[in-house]
Amino acid sequence: MSQKPSVLFVCVHNAGRSQMAAAFLTTLSKGAIEVRSAGSQPAEKVNPAAVEAMAEVGIDMSAEIPKVLTTEAVKDSDVVITMGCGDECPYFPGKRYEDWVLEDPAGKGVDSVRPIRDEIKTRVESLIASLIPASA
């Protein structure tokens, strides 16, 4: 039996997109996937509109804190998903990299964050399907 897969979500501030993606993956995978998130230039706090948008779907992100991207976090992850940090993310051969082009929720109200949240959920569901066999 192999160890559970690990995923790292990276965006610039680790305050919106990557936090929502990590929260969805943690919740929807029910612990079957190890989840990390980080930012190349982390903000001081998670975007309140992102926290509110996630609360609307029953996921509490209010205690989350933006974290700085480290080389170790990338090394320790099987899948690295970037969301607007581009070449600031270290590259290691053998890792699966994806770049999710998503609108940045920074400075937007909850009405504008909802469609971003919903797009992230759809992508996370596809990610889970690619990492966990259907029989699991």
Written overview of the protein:
By secondary structure, the chain is an alpha/beta fold. The chain is 35% helix and 15% strand. It has helices at 17-28, 48-55, 71-75, 110-131; strands at 6-11, 34-39, 79-83, 96-99. Strands 2-1-3-4 form a four-stranded parallel sheet, covered by helices on one side. The longest helix has 22 residues, at 110-131.
Summary of the model, kept short:
By secondary structure, the protein is of the alpha/beta class. It is 35% helix and 15% strand. A four-stranded parallel sheet has the order 2-1-3-4, with helices on one face.
- Helix content percent band: 25-40%
Number of helices: 4
What pattern of helices and strands is seen along the backbone?
EHEHHEEH
Give the strand order, joined by hyphens, for the main sheet.
2-1-3-4
Shape, principal axes of CA atoms: globular
How many strands, what sense, and barrel or not for the largest sheet?
Answer: 4 strands, parallel
Strand content: 15-25%
Overall radius of gyration? 14 Å
Query: In whole angstroms, how far apart are the ends?
Result: 12 Å
